[in-house]
Design goal:
Number of domains: 1
CATH topology: TorD-like
Shape: globular
Low-confidence stretches: 6-18, 20-34
Helix content: 55-70%
Radius of gyration: 17 Å
Largest sheet: 2 strands, parallel
Order of helices and strands: EHHHHHHHHEHHHH
CATH class: Mainly Alpha
Length: 228
């Protein structure tokens, strides 16, 4: 069984560099354009996983600050650059405070629920989580030791998509398993989650994260529709 969080730090360290210069690190220099596209998509999943899994530490903030010059004139590029610029201006303590208010809150919880089951059904341990655990078992994916969150946390799902696209969780790079996983575990709710994050009252630093996620989920939907 592969622990889906075991490689989070390694993949996260390359996010800003790969987005900044449009390069990836496939295992073979002869990788096709299609594989390169899959790796770039994987990098977006890696970025979302890293900034949504927990409050950003100083290393993560520094990595994201490198995105400030990413703007390529597209709405997605503008959102990435905006996030990088906000990271430049935001100290770690402030970033942690905002994350906590957004996702945990005080008493009744935060503005945003990052769990598929709670988002879709109103219950934390419901059918979406059970179905995810079935697919994880089939794919040989296990939560890493010490992981306290339910597996259907948006960051965990993004990590798993990253692993399926790159082959880090087994199988071929960009395999059909990634499409099936996206269709079942992200498509029904992730776009709305990111839209809600984008408009959350407590979101300042995380507002462009919502924009990045919303736009990227739209791209993913189009990619898989064209491939159907």
């Amino acid at each position: 069984m592969i622990g889906y969080s075991d490689w989070e730090t390694r993949k996260g360290d390359a996010v800003a560099t790969s987005m900044g210069d449009n390069q990836t690190n496939p295992s073979s220099s002869e990788s096709s354009d299609v594989m390169s596209d899959d790796m770039m998509r994987a990098n977006f999943y890696g970025l979302l996983a890293r900034v949504l899994a927990k409050p950003m530490d100083e290393d993560t903030l520094e990595t994201m600050r490198a995105l400030a010059k990413h703007d390529d004139g597209t709405p997605l590029g503008e959102a990435i650059a905006s996030f990088g610029k906000l990271c430049v201006r935001t100290p770690r303590a402030k970033a942690e405070e905002e994350f906590t208010e957004l996702f945990y809150g005080v008493g009744a919880g935060g503005e945003i629920s990052p769990y598929a089951s709670l988002y879709l059904t109103g219950l934390v341990y419901d059918k979406p989580l059970a179905e995810l655990r079935e697919d994880m078992a089939r794919l040989g994916i296990a939560a890493a030791d010490g992981t306290g969150e339910p597996e259907d946390h948006i960051a965990s799902l993004c990590e798993m998509m990253h692993g399926l696209l790159t082959g880090a969780l087994g199988g071929d790079v960009g395999s059909s398993e990634a499409k099936a996983f996206y269709d079942k575990h992200l498509a029904p709710w992730a776009g709305k989650l990111f839209e809600d994050l984008e408009g959350a009252q407590a979101a300042a630093l995380y507002m462009p994260v919502g924009t990045i996620g919303r736009l990227f989920m739209e791209i993913e939907r189009e990619v898989y529709e064209m491939a159907a």
